[in-house]
């Protein structure tokens, strides 16, 4: 299944790689095509510009030809000059056109156009000259016409006198008419006064007409020649214009052809690009579907494997849970008979036994201790594996623990000549905050191993504080057998030892260092080892350094080992009574608990005591009445012993308690530290600490309760803590039943007494939601409906709380 799981990332990677390669190829092709397309686009733009310029030149050519015709027909010199100026501009435009044409052939054509334009100018100049000659012939014709008019004025008849347009007549008719005109002119009668002058004028006019006719004939001949020349020039003009249009047309066609080819190339490129993109999209889609099917197939298999794995994991968890429950059950079941065996062994050891019997009992005790340690190790190991280890954060003295552990283990090996050396940093005399029980466990395992594997020499425990890293370093160095380098990590594995021979020679389960390393990790530290085989080992423990805000408390000035102080405890709350009793007994006080004041007074009649701790509000006899009875009853033999008031009431001041005869006052809820400080202050005649009342509305996160204060009362006493909680839950259920009945009976006095009795222990476990309801019922006079509603709410909250507490106990 692991191999199958590894296939999925590979297939996904390959699919992405193929798609990326496809995308890259398409992108490269599109880039190259786009580059080519852009190049063609630029060429297309250039060709369009060329076509536009050729069109402009053609337009200028047509305009020039129009101006040429005007210049030919017009007698104005200005028209000819305009034509020449326009032709020069046309030549300049043709020169600019050379920059955009692509071939030398086209440039030659443009040069030929310019040559033709120059010829055209010359041709037009020649035509204008011929036209001027034609105008000379017209002058001769005009002179002959004038002479003819003179003849008419001199009484000579002309053809025009008879026919309006003689030129339109046929030759025969005109000759007949001419002869008739001549006959008439001969027979016109002469005037006697002007006969002489007439003859003279006739002779002059006749001679002039003859000369002019001759000139006219010559001019007509020349005109024919000029007409021929003009026709040639006109043909030349047409030929030049035709050649100009043809040349420019060739250039235009070539440019249009090139532009068309570029356009077709663009279209082909676009078509090719579309085909490639479409093909790539289809291939990409097919590849995506192909790999998707593969991945979904693998995913389906993975889900199947995952379900199998979950089933196997669930089975393994059940097996681990079963193993844990089995080990826990067996361990707990072993603890009771082991405790019995150890207890009876101690009793036997203290009885009159001979040497052989003492030897037997000693072996029994040693084996029992070994089994007890094995059972404890198994329990710790299963709790660590299950993640059920809880870490405390309470102040403790590190030097005290190291001294206690070191000397305790040294006393187990009196036969070994081993010197125990302790070197503790003076800055660690102040209390630190942590879990003393777990640290004691770690040190017991490591120092115990040092003694076990060292036959002689020394064991040195060096403790230093590093303020830069906020760490405490504890080094345990021994001169024992040492550990081979290859086995130095092996020793931290469960049920494993450095050498198979070690188990046979020294015994052990191979769990001690495993538990110690895991415990150190849970505490936020490390456990390391340095060792040389045959020369000893150095185990280094590092844990976080966190100082307590207060200095180490001074011990009581009196020696409690010589005299145990006798304490009387009076409290109608059975759970709080038991809790206070356990705390004082742990601190070597002789304690006599009573759940009512009258019984305590009866006991006091016949017994001595050193101090009394009493609750104030109790049924039958409260704390104030008890104090009066104690002070005023002579047979009680009261000698001003300290009476400490424990109360949850807020309506009385400290002065009220002092006037009543109480020494100090402890407000509920309180911690063992407060109670012990108060007792210490009384017997050392120091200032009694004033402890402010706790605010019931203190926030405890989202938790229903907290056992932090109770655990401070009973550190490392889990069984005692369980007993206290069991008693608390039992008494609370009984009081809740009484409270429900009192609410039904509207017995407000009883309601206040019961809630006052219940409240302190709920405050001790910081169940503030419940405590607030109890405060309301105790301190306020409310209506019956509100009381019943508050009691129902209280019952529901207590039920939820006790379910959680029972789970924690079990």
TrEMBL record:
The modification 4-aspartylphosphate is found at residue 615. The chain crosses the membrane at residues 12-31, 276-297. It is found in: Cell membrane. PROSITE patterns: HIS_KIN, RESPONSE_REGULATORY. Residues 566-683 form the Response regulatory domain. CDD domains: HATPase_EvgS-ArcB-TorS-like, HisKA, REC. GO terms for molecular function: ATP binding; phosphorelay sensor kinase activity. Pfam families: HATPase_c (PF02518), HisKA (PF00512), Response_reg (PF00072). SUPFAM superfamilies: ATPase domain of HSP90 chaperone/DNA topoisomerase II/histidine kinase, CheY-like, Histidine-containing phosphotransfer domain, HPT domain, Homodimeric domain of signal transducing histidine kinase. Residues 329-547 form the Histidine kinase domain. Its EC number is 2.7.13.3. It is a multi-pass membrane protein. Keywords: ATP-binding, Cell membrane, Kinase, Membrane, Nucleotide-binding, Phosphoprotein, Transferase, Transmembrane, Transmembrane helix, Two-component regulatory system. Gene3D superfamilies: 1.10.287.130, 3.40.50.2300, Histidine kinase-like ATPase, C-terminal domain, HPT domain. One of its GO terms (cellular component) is plasma membrane. It catalyses: ATP + protein L-histidine = ADP + protein N-phospho-L-histidine. This is histidine kinase. The lineage of its organism: Bacteria, Pseudomonadati, Bacteroidota, Flavobacteriia, Flavobacteriales.
């Amino acid at each position: 299944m692991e191999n199958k799981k590894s296939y999925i990332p590979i297939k996904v990677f390959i699919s992405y790689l193929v798609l990326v390669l496809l995308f890259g190829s398409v992108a490269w092709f599109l880039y190259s095509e786009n580059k080519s397309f852009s190049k063609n686009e630029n060429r297309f733009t250039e060709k369009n510009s060329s076509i536009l310029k050729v069109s402009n030149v053609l337009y200028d050519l047509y305009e020039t030809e129009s101006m040429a015709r005007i210049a030919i027909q017009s007698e104005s010199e200005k028209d000819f000059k305009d034509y020449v100026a326009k032709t020069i501009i046309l030549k300049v435009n043709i020169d600019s056109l050379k920059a955009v044409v692509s071939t030398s052939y086209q440039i030659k054509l443009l040069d030929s156009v310019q040559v033709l334009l120059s010829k055209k100018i010359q041709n037009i100049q020649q035509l204008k000259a011929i036209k001027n000659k034609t105008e000379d012939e017209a002058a001769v014709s005009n002179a002959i016409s004038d002479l003819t008019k003179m003849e008419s004025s001199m009484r000579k008849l002309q053809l025009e006198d008879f026919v309006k347009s003689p030129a339109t007549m046929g030759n025969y008719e005109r000759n007949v008419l001419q002869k008739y005109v001549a006959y008439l002119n001969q027979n016109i009668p002469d005037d006697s006064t002007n006969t002489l002058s007439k003859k003279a004028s006739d002779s002059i006019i006749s001679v002039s007409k003859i000369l002019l006719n001759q000139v006219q004939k010559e001019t007509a001949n020349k005109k024919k020649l000029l007409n021929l020349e003009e026709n040639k020039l006109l043909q030349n003009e047409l030929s030049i214009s035709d050649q100009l249009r043809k040349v420019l047309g060739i250039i235009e066609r070539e440019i249009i052809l090139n532009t068309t080819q570029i356009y077709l190339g663009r279209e082909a490129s676009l078509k090719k690009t579309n085909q490639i993109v479409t093909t790539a999209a289809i291939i990409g889609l097919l590849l995506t579907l192909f790999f998707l099917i593969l991945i979904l197939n693998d995913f389906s298999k993975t889900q199947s494997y995952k379900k199998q794995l979950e089933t196997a994991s669930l089975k393994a968890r059940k097996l681990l849970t079963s193993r844990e429950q089995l080990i826990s059950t067996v361990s707990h079941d072993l603890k009771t008979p082991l405790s019995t065996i150890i207890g009876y062994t101690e009793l036997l050891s203290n009885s009159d036994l001979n040497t052989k019997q003492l030897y037997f009992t000693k072996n029994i005790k040693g084996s029992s201790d070994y089994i007890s340690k094995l059972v404890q190790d198994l329990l710790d190991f299963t709790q660590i594996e299950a993640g059920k280890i809880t870490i405390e954060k309470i102040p403790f003295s590190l030097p005290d623990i190291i001294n206690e552990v070191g000397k305790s283990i040294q006393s187990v090996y009196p036969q070994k000549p081993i010197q125990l050396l302790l070197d503790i940093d003076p800055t660690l005399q102040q209390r630190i905050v942590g879990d003393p029980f777990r640290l004691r466990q770690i040190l017991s395992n490591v120092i115990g191993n040092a003694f076990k594997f060292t036959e002689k020499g020394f064991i040195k425990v060096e403790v230093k504080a590093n303020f830069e890293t906020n760490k405490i370093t504890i080094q345990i160095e021994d001169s024992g057998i040492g550990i081979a380098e290859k086995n130095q990590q092996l020793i931290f594995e469960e049920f494993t030892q450095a050498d198979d021979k070690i188990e046979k020679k020294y015994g052990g389960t191979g769990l001690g260092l495993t538990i110690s390393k895991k415990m150190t990790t849970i505490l936020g530290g490390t456990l390391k080892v340095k060792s040389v085989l045959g020369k000893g080992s150095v185990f280094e423990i590092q844990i976080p350094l966190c100082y307590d805000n207060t200095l180490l408390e001074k011990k009581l000035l009196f020696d409690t080992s010589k005299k145990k102080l006798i304490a009387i405890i009076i409290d109608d709350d059975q759970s709080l009574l038991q809790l206070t009793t356990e705390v004082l007994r742990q601190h070597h006080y002789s304690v006599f608990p009573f759940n009512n004041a009258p019984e305590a007074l009866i006991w006091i009649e016949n017994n001595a005591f050193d101090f009394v701790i009493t609750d104030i509000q109790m049924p039958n006899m409260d704390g104030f009445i008890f104090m009066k009875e104690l002070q005023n009853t002579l047979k009680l033999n009261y000698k001003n012993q300290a009476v400490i008031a424990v109360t949850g009431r807020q309506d009385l001041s400290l002065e009220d308690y002092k006037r009543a005869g109480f020494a100090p006052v402890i407000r509920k809820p309180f911690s063992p530290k407060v109670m012990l400080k108060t007792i210490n202050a009384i017997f050392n005649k120091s200032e009694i600490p004033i402890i402010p009342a706790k605010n019931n509305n203190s926030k405890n996160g989202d938790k229903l309760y907290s056992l932090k204060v109770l655990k401070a009362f009973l550190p490392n006493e889990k069984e005692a803590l369980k007993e206290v909680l069991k008693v608390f839950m039992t008494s609370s259920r009984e009081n809740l039943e009484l409270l429900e009945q009192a609410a039904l009976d509207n017995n407000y006095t009883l309601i206040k007494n019961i809630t006052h009795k219940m409240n302190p222990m709920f405050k001790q476990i910081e169940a503030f939601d419940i405590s607030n309801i109890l405060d309301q019922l105790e301190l306020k006079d409310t209506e019956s409906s509100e009381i019943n509603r508050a009691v129902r709410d209280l019952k529901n909250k207590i039920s939820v709380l006790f379910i959680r507490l029972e789970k924690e106990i079990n």
